[in-house]
Amino acid sequence: MKPKVYITRRIPKEAMDIIAGRCEYRIWDREDEAVPRDVLEAEVGDVDGLFSLLTERIDERLLDRAPRLKVVANMAVGYDNIDVAACMRRGITVTNTPGVLTETTADLAFSLMMAAARRVTEAERFLREGKWKTWSPMLLTGVDLYGKTLGIIGLGRIGQAVARRARGFSMRVLYTSDRPHPDLEAGLGVERCDLDGLLKESDFVSIHVPLTDRTRGMIGRRELSLMKPTAVLVNTSRGAVVREQELIETLREKRIFAAGLDVFETEPLPQDSPLLELDNVVLLPHIGSASIATRTKMAVMAAENLVRLLSGQEPLNPVTV
Ligand code: GLV
Q: I need a surface site. Which of 5, 115, 134, 232 has the fewest CB within 10 A?
């Protein structure tokens, strides 16, 4: 008998083919709407495997309803939506999709740095709103990126990929990390620094840590107050690493130059968020890894993890806590 699987969203055909060949599946077959919690709770009742997205909270309550579950294959590198410890206690394997999204996400972090520094989205709004009357010496002037100092918080795969890009812009690169990386310091030309020092010295600060109990809220009023008034903060990791309300106050009072955010404490960003009223922030709807090729690779990787585990093979990308 084929294992039973639930898939929480419409996913690329390449990934569906992998699952359909080996499993019996049901799917929340929508593109733009997450599976409602009550539907998910009912659907997991008889499944051996779950193909999930970061929009699903996989917690004790859900696991209680899934007595046969053996694997949760998350189509994301981050897995803060999953209570991994609870899964492990129940012998459920959790997998993620590392590596395949590294360069795509680093590209987006760089796009946000440049867009926030040069006021790209604000300038486009200005033009579309018919406000462009004439070329003017100081109209929509921003800050330069070339040759400046970049601070990378968390020198994992994506942080390193951002550092590689920074070399092409002749940037000095500082990083924070729990442990020194002498090999990377030599190879990438980066310097390790403590967080306060990095915040004080950097013209651009880009966040690349996963969301954990230790990183939740790690950038708040105190940290933001250490940044230069001309500095730009970029977050492509998880919204809750930054205390959003404190960032809003900092931006409103123009105590830093700008921010570029792809992630938020609450997603989707509520329509009444004060962020929407600020010009000095570029806002994106969590599209860090959103190239066609990369999202397809992520879906295929998650599908392979799911199917491998259910057919008695080692999954390629198990995660632990
Ligand atoms: C996206 O945010 C991911 O973790 O893959």
A: 134
Q: What is the pLDDT of residue 112?
A: 99
What pLDDT does 256 receive?
A: 99
Comparing CA positions, the residue from 299, 302, 320 lying closest to residue 310 is 302
Phi then psi dihedrals of residue 230, to 5 deg: -100, 5
Closest CA to 294 of 16, 69, 106, 63: 106
> Domains (ranges, CATH) in the chain?
4-99+292-310 (3.40.50.720), 102-283 (3.40.50.720)
Q: How many other CB atoms sit within 10 Å of the CB of residue 27?
A: 18
* pLDDT tens digit sequence for 261-302: 999 999 999 999 999 999 999 999 999 999 999 999 999 999
CB 152 within 8 A of CB 208: yes
Set 9, 22, 208, 286: catalytic member: 286
- 238 annotated active-site: yes
CA of 315 to the centre of ligand 1 (A): 19
Give CA–CA dist 36/40, Å, rounded. 6
The pLDDT assigned to 126 comes to 98
Residue 106 is inside which H or E element, if any? Answer: helix 102-117
Atom number, ligand 1, closest to the C-alpha of residue 78:
4
Task: Kindly give the interhelix angle for 120-128 and 102-117, rounded to the nearest 10 degrees.
Answer: 60
Verify whether residue 165 is a known catalytic residue. no
Residue 319: strand pairing partners: 94
| pLDDT one-digit tens code per residue, 64-105 | 999 999 999 999 999 999 999 999 999 999 999 999 999 999
Contacts of 313 (CB under 8 A, 6+ apart): none
Tens digit of pLDDT for each residue in 95-114? Answer: 999 999 999 999 999 999 99
